Amino acid sequence: MMFWKEVKRVRKGEYGGEERVKGADGQLLVDVIKVRERWAEYFKNLLNEEDDREAEIVAVANEWRMPMLDENDRDIKKEEVRLAPRATKTGKAPGIDCCHVECLSKACLESHLEPLGILVLERQVLVSQKGDLDAKPPLRKKMKTEVKESSDASLWLNMAELYRSLDMWDVVCGIVQEKLGNIKPETCRALEAEAINNPTQAFVQYRTALRKEEWEEEPSLTEKRIWEDWYLNCAGMLGQWSEMEKFLEERFLKDHDGHVEVSRVWNVARPTSVILPAMIQSKLMNILDGSDNDGNLFEFIKASMEDTHHRLLMENTFPLQMAVLAVYQEKMPRAEVYLNSTMSHTLHAISQYSILTPKPLKATLRNAQLLTELDDFLKASKQAISDADPFKVKKSIETWKNRNVNTGDNPVLIQCLASYRDLYLHHLDNQIELIPEEFNQVMRDIKVATHRAVVESSLQNFNYHLADRHLRKLKVISNDPYSLAQFYFLMTENHMLRAKNNPFKSLQYLVEAWARFMGKVSTMPVLNEAAVDAQYLRLESLLCYSICEAIDEMGYEWAPDSQYMRILADKFPTPQSKETWYTELLKCSFNSLIKAVDLTENQMLDDVEPNESSHKKVYRTLAKYCDDCLEKWENRINSFEYSKYLVIATLKGMMVGDTDAQYHFPRLINLLEENPLLIDTFKSYAEKVPTWMFLLWLNHILIYIDKAPGPALQPLIENLANEYPQAVVYPFGVSVQQYNLTTKTGKLALPICNRVKSVLNRNPLFQEFISSTSLVVAPYIECKDALRSLVEVECGKEEIEAKLKVIEETLFKVNVRSTRRTSFERGEAYIKLDRMRKLALEAVNKSFGENFKKLNSMSVKDIKEQLKVLYSLFKPTQEDQQNLPRQLKSYSPWLASFQASKYPDILELPGQYSGLSKPLPEYHVKISSFDDNLLLMKSMRVPVRITVRGDDERDYKFLVKWGEDLRTDQRMEQAFALMNAIYSSSPLCSNLTSRPSLDTYQVIPLSVQVGLLQWVEATMPLKDFISDSYKANEMKAYDSARETFGRVRPWEPSEKTRAKDIVKIYGEVVNMIPWDILRRGFVKLASDSTGFFSLRSAFAVSYATLCISHWILGIGDRHCSNSLINLKTGCVVGIDFGHHFESATQVLPFPELMPFRLSPQIVNVFQPVGASGMLKQIMIAALGSLRNSRQLLISFLEAFVKEPTDDWINFVRMLQGSTDDGQVELYSNERIRLLKAKLNGINPAHITSWALKQNRSMKRQPRVLSSLLEVIAGSNKNDLRSQLDADQLTSCQQVDILLSLACDPNILGRTWIGWDSFL
């Protein structure tokens, strides 16, 4: 483990050896003191003023302005910028410090300062585009024109290279698509293939483009370079080393006579960045694969060693490859020298990387396995020569069997790992004369395990070309029956993957797999082993299902008497028509998979130490298979049987602790509702599942207790209440109020509800906590809501009188004698009347008389008219909010005086039962007391922040929200958690800058009226974050812009409003505000340029994920106060989800037409790459992942239908004018239909148009509605929104339309002023 010893040595500060450096006169200095003095002299000259020029500082710390040189202290003219590159010697644009872009890029790549290099290049683009950074960036439409006209493709390409070095492929693709002008369709298709992790298709597209000779318009040199570089990258990923070597020779290394001269690589424009590494790697890999010749590589290296510059470059850039070649030539001492050099370079690289850009650091650390194994080999080689003891050698290399590849490893790394091991083992085999069979077996096991791991990793990453390459090697070394059977299984899986990627030959590949590979295994004795037989049956099942899909996709081209169908007929003699083929294949598929599961379970019982991961996998496979069949083949299968096994497989997965099965639990409830006959099956298996695993879906389960699935779910709730009462008490208390216990299923739920209540009532603190917390509200808010309820709810005169008396007793004439020292005691804030309650009390006495004597003579209609007058009195001013008390005792004396030591029962801090692991209540935080100081939010409903003191001596902050049904927020947060689980496991998200993820927080409804929200520390509302970044007098610019926008009032619908006028007004308002205020906020958070770069990258991934997740759920009203910025990470946290499922378009008087917020300040954070460049690929991956898991999402979100929240019912009232069950059900079903349409590829513009048509105010203005529908469709017929189909769009096409809608100034300019669309 030489590498890690070196790491420890450097960490301890042991730097052995002498430091040497050349003096100013060129003489070598060896004395330590003189060396240090020379370095001090060097840096003094370097960092101080030279040549009468001042150093320019770009993107450092909090300052983003570029100090101008004295002689250039004036505005730069656009013509100067355009002509400057032509005046340079090479015709290439220098950077702002007069350093050529290529030099800057290379220097940053070599020193691992990619973030700094990117920001410098971005600065150069901003300066060249705007002339001065204080200028306002043009609107989106103008910006597109400027990008297309940009001539500095070299700058963009170098920026892309820097992003590529950081493994930020999403941004690289964005730069190529958005910034390099009109790229060819082949490039677009290749980038789309890379976005969905399909290197094979990308490789084909790049190769097609490179081989094409005739173009209508010749591609740019920049685009050709991209083809070359990325073609080589894809070839390496696919293991196409011979093709890579041939391509390099044909394109770069041939002279005029057609002869290959390897030394010509030094004449290539960029030898060390791409071409030279590709040449050396391809030739080395071909040599290790047994190529007949070395491609003149050794001759090239020998010649390079004779040139000082070339030798330094080779030894510093490719020390590991040189070491492996030395091993190949059996020059072990030289290999050791190069290994030491490699370790030094690796340590140096690790020391230069920043933890803020972790991907390249992780990749470097992962590559350390290549070094440690080379070190192991060299030690083993010495032992083989000196001792000739194979057992010592065996000990050195035995650990390699367990050191295999990971699914997420770079494909080139895993190929090197396998090829290098083959080389090392071959040499050890030759060095030891008499090799014991035991040692031989170890070497064979290592080879088999290595190549099998490479194949499995390749298949999981859809890389069948690479799998093919290593399957050929695996076949040679698979000597025993078990290994041979595993080889044929992998060949089968590879053919199945080929079939998916080649629909025209899918049937051929699938039948060949069955006949050639599965057929051979079927005759092998090893099939009698349970594990092998289970694998065989699983693959047989998948083959049958895949053949069904292939036949279905062929449509009319399918022929029953084709060559491949005749082969299948030998196994299935019965089928005659396509329908009977479907039936027989699906039957075989289902039966085989059930047998495979049975065999796996029996093996689990026999094993002393059962492998739970394999059982999780087989249950997961069965569950997914049944779910897929129910979705696609429902009419051709026994739905009940498949549903039954889906329930069984999911619950068995939960039994063995599979979190994937746990996340699929809502789907089971959906099935129980569709078919109540499944209830007995569910109950028999659910009772074997650990109770805690149902905590994740506790709120979801409670919704269905009084409905059809109730009998299956009721025992779960009772068990949860007995084991975890602190988790059940709050959600049960909210849901039980919604139950209808008079129906047939409701009556069955009544006994269980009573038993659960009995369990929960054992701790009286629960209800006391809920009652006292409901008092932490501004009294005038409670009074206003009570009056509104009387106005809106249909009730008789007696009921109105009773409710008015309650209002009088609790809000007007509060008497605390009867409630003193109880949780119902109201504090000083209630006893002392505020301004509005005084006015209301006077109005009550005047309208209804003392003790409501006048009510008897008034009609219900007259009473409600007076109540409306009362309600209108509650118009709080800023002064009213300021006069509210800030002490907890002024609202709830019980909470303020609470001391846990006074009570025998305990009260846990809410929100500690995540359901992701078994809870340990004895270690949970208990509430000790409450801080008396409150923080009142500056919001219409004045939510209150309280501080809870835990028994762990820590403070926990929660926001108390009164008068809102927080079940909506709770369900949204749970939906986000489910989406996070989808993103974390989706292969589509594996190549992004970082995995998409949403920041979530706990929401705990205590009742329908009051609840707690976890206070998210170190966050700030987006609006405040922007406000804090204003410089002196800039706040006036915002006020002026808002005033101008308010004066014109472009958001008011009018059929006469022209798009041209809206865009002009909106542009003027936008340009009144400095363009980079939000960007400055992130600069202020960062300590240096890398910090800013990291914060912006995190913001990009977080915000792109947030936008897509919110669009799927139809979340609207995204004004600047409904998003929080995390001041530590730069991520975004969404809050307040009152408008969801397109309600912001349907019910607001000024309907929202944009899918999410992508206003100018947010867009400008990503300049000059732009929002499309930095967000688009992340959005495509996130949306694709959700579409692939649509059934799971839909099953969960149907909870809104089964238990409508108050918000949901209010939307029905606004749209339909009635809230009867039929209207609510109709509204709910329509929203679920929209959700399904989004996940199936509907045009997003059509969703917005549909929602707008439901808006009642728009229905009254048909001409205005018609004009707004035209705005949504796009300003011209060529607009993407109207050009694409209404449905069946790809994720990429949906994202293109979403970005178009979100950034359209004709839409943003029509948005209500409170949304601040110009900010």
From TrEMBL:
Class of the enzyme per the UniProt entry, highest EC level: transferase
GO CC terms in record: nucleus
Record InterPro entries: DDR_Repair_Kinase, DNA-PK_dom, FATC_dom, Kinase-like_dom_sf, PI3/4_kinase_cat_dom, PI3/4_kinase_cat_sf, PI3/4_kinase_CS
EC number: 2.7.11.1
Residue intervals of the PI3K/PI4K catalytic domain: 930-1250
Organism from which the protein derives: Halocaridina rubra (Hawaiian red shrimp)
Source domain of life: Eukaryota
Keywords: ATP-binding, Kinase, Nucleotide-binding, Transferase
Keyword ATP-binding (UniProt): yes
Any GO MF annotation of the entry: DNA-dependent protein kinase activity
GO biological process terms held by the UniProt record: double-strand break repair; telomere maintenance
Listed name of the protein: non-specific serine/threonine protein kinase
N-terminal signal peptide: none
SUPFAM superfamilies: Protein kinase-like (PK-like) (SSF56112)
Domain FATC intervals: 1287-1319
Family matches, as Pfam families: FATC (PF02260), PI3_PI4_kinase (PF00454)
Keyword match Phosphoprotein: no
